[in-house]
Amino acid sequence: MCVGPLKRFCHWGPLIALGIIKSVTFATVSCLSQWWPPHESWGSSVLFFTFMSCAVLTLYCFLHAMFTGPGTMPLKWEPEKAEDKQFLQFCGTCEGYKAPRTHHCRKCGRCVMKMDHHCPWINNCVGHKNHCSFTFFLLFAVLGCAQASVVLSLSIYHAIHRTWYIYYGTGREPIVYMSLWGMVMCMFVLGLAIGVVLAVGMLLYFQLRAILRNRTAIEDWILEKAVHRRGMMDQPFIYPYNLGCWNNFKQVINFSCEPIGDGIMWLVRTECHQYTLTIEQLEQKAEKRARCREYQVVQSYSGWWFPCTKGLGVCCHPPCTDEPRISLQLGDIVAVTRWKKYWLYGERTSGSSKAERHRGWFPRCCAVQILSTESDSDNPPTDTNRPVQDSPVESKKKR
Description:
Blueprint: H1 12-35, H2 42-68, E1 90-91, E2 96-97, E3 103-105, E4 110-112, E5 117-119, E6 124-126, H3 131-160, H4 162-168, H5 180-213, H6 217-230, H7 245-252, H8 276-290, E7 293-297, H9 312-316, E8 333-339, E9 343-348, E10 358-363, E11 367-369, H10 374-378
Antiparallel strand pairs: 1-2, 3-4, 5-6, 7-8, 7-11, 8-9, 9-10
């Protein structure tokens, strides 16, 4: 099964998502056939048709978002004009330049067009080409599970009071038959449906907000750092891709789920140009390199998420992110860019090739700072006045 296109299914995310879709669909259809059979009235027929439409469209949009993918940059891509290279970041893994709004995903191993995040449920990134189908998938999943929650709740209620309806009812009440295990399964599926409405509904809200702003989750963090970096006195940073709510909405949402544009060149505001955001990214990268400090490893670290041998504080205060941990050996040199009380984040510079970068968290007790200059020794980074930390959004990409 893990060969060719079916390889996308070889992950816990798609398997769980498909299991939820199938279980909610089968349980709802089974209960609906007893509580309000479709052939009894036009209302029940409409309810059955709308639910099945949501179920089928949820599955279709899920598969479309999974197999279409976000769109990736060609390997070793370069801009048409050589002078534009100075405004773009270079990806050592893909050996090419990153077009505007493009970011490298460390899980997919490619530079993704207009990357929003890597979604484990579709085992793929959400980006330029599948943003519309992914949003429709969330919408139909919420609508379908909302209907399923109503049907399952009423069916369970009638099944519990079945005996009362038989002896004391008017004869017009629906009689729903469920065994003990059937009742347990329906309650379990009801919990799944309610969970989808709450969790996926919140994700749908954030996606719609991102579409109306024409900002991905990664670009939200870039903009936040741009505003913080300039402060109140400097000229404010103008986000180049916000063309108004309606124009932003039309760029992503349409019935064909086909994206507008090629994912490389974008419509921008009149006061901006194609490389406004990429120039800001390069300046932020330069500041990040300026605050970088080199550390030497004095204790080896295996890369475990909960290293019991490094102390109770390290185990009880892990970084709240899914970013990786890096294994370290005695004598390794690490360029650190983020500081926490018990953990450090950096890139191992010794023994790493340019194409293969080893970045992640490791316990702070495993390394000591290399004081190479007087300025470093006078102003070491501290927890109370440390550089601005990166957001958990950066765990979804490799910049």
